Automatic annotation (TrEMBL):
Gene3D superfamilies: PCu(A)C copper chaperone. The keyword Transcription does not apply. It comes from the Bacteria. Keywords: Signal. This is Copper chaperone PCu(A)C. Residues 1-18 form the signal peptide. It comes from Methylobacillus methanolivorans. SUPFAM superfamilies: DR1885-like metal-binding protein (SSF110087).
Length: 149
């Protein structure tokens, strides 16, 4: 009987982590000497969570940025966090939300693999770290919002 109670207590004390799915993580290739790179990915969580930070051994710092148009001028600015609603995909893509890798250690070439860690927080301030690998690749005209003629 004491084993049953122990098991029940253990089950009650477990925290349920969010299931976070990351799809197609990639980083745009860079020119020699360039010190920043942009990362893109699609993220879905089965619970409401907030992306609160990111880090990578490949860069000195990783920030979340958004692109906006103000008075006809495209501007980029960092944002502190990104809310994800349960089962609602959020896409970080060229021309919109994206990750900025600042102080990159070397140029990004097609096929490179870049480790990155995303840190999510739920309503109870419980954190979940998601380690992913971004792939270096060239941007296409379609991703830039251009159409082939």
């Amino acid at each position: 009987m004491k084993y049953i109670w122990s098991g029940l207590l253990l089950l009650c004390s477990l925290q349920v982590q969010a299931e976070i799915t990351v799809v197609e993580p990639w980083v745009r290739t860079t020119a020699p000497g360039q010190k920043v790179a942009a990362g893109y990915v699609r993220i879905v969580s089965d619970k409401d969570v907030v992306l609160v930070s990111a880090n990578s051994s490949f860069a000195d710092k990783v920030e979340l940025h958004e692109m906006t148009v103000e008075n006809g001028v495209m501007k980029m600015r960092p944002i502190k966090q990104l809310e994800l609603k349960a089962n609602t995909p959020v896409e970080l893509k060229p021309g919109g939300l994206h990750l900025m890798l600042l102080g990159i250690k070397s140029p990004v070439k097609t096929g490179d693999t870049i480790p990155l860690n995303l840190v999510f927080e739920d309503k109870k301030a419980s954190q979940d770290n998601v380690a992913i690998t971004f792939n270096g690749r060239d941007i296409t005209h379609q991703e830039m919002g251009h159409h082939a003629h």
